[in-house]
Amino acid sequence: MRVFVTRRIADAGLQLLKDAGLEVEVWAEKRKLSQGELISACGNADALISAGQALNEEFMDACSHLKAIALHSVGYDNVDIAAATRLGIPVGNTPGVLSESTADTAFLLMQSVARNAFYMHKTIGRGEWGFFEPTANLGQDLSGLTLGIFGLGKIGFEMARKCRGAFGMNVIYHNRKPNEQAEKELDAKYVSFEELLQHSDVLSVHTDLTPQTRHKFDESAFKQMKPTSIFVNTARGSIHVETDLKTALEKGIMWGAGLDVTSPEPMEADNPLLDMPRVAILPHVGSATLKTRTAMSRLAAENIIAVAQGRQMEYQINASPDV
Ligand code: DGY
């Protein structure tokens, strides 16, 4: 079996593929493949490991010979799963292994915004570290505040666990369905979306991007949040409306925002949000630790190897026909 990999991933997974007797070709250029290049690269491949490429219906139809597609991500909003299912192509992802590192990033952004860290850092470079004023540059204490989680799955659970442990924060959440483990272990309380907006001191987004969650955080949502609230998004940039977020921050409707995801990505270097106080932005590095990226690489490879050996992928998104 021949596997095409759309960009260099950690060696551990590539080695697993080779040890299993599979032939591996890695796209070496540091740029996305065009649709034509991707289709042609997959022409003589039996399986694909895709990192950072959109896989649409046209791609699926052109590459219906693929026996397996393994995503090097947990998110699959940029992949036409229905088309893959129609063509009988199993598609796998990498859940679980990135929950801690992604939650760490949300936690980092929350603290950075609470203490205006990114902006304060820049003031030093501008020569603005001058006279000490006891009433200037004041941040927020997080102890005892209320954390609201939008989408309490594996990553949201980790974020809630960290915030409870470190700051004794109360946890409220809004989900498609209640999360019993979080209610039992973290005393998390299920609330409506409106209650989540109104009662969260920190509101952290951990849901998938779907038609239902796209632009869920818009002007009307931000207007319901507390003036002292912190908005954190480490899930997908299209879950919030960036212009509405910027306006809400400018008008003081909210305290600040921490984003690891934007729309589009990459964010333009001259985006005004980058220079705003109480805003912390990272370039989608939630899962970017050596341990996590190694685990993701292994999981993606294991999903392909399973199919090559006639087994079902351990993490197959379209295992059930209704996905
Ligand atoms: C994921 O795995 O979906 C992360 O966002 C990394 O892309």
Notes on the structure:
There is one protein chain. The protein has 323 residues and is of the alpha/beta class. The chain has 2 domains: 125 residues, NAD(P)-binding Rossmann-like Domain (Rossmann fold, 3-Layer(aba) Sandwich); 183 residues, NAD(P)-binding Rossmann-like Domain (Rossmann fold). 36% of the residues lie in helices and 14% in strands. The strands form 2 sheets. The chain has a 7-stranded parallel sheet with strand order 8-7-6-9-10-11-12, with helices on both faces. Helix 8 links the parallel strand 7 and strand 8. Helix 1 runs parallel beside helix 12 and helix 5 crosses helix 7. The longest helix has 19 residues. The protein starts with a strand and ends in a 15-residue tail after the last helix. The mean pLDDT is 97. Bound molecules: (2R)-2,3-dihydroxypropanoic acid (DGY). (2R)-2,3-dihydroxypropanoic acid binds next to loops.
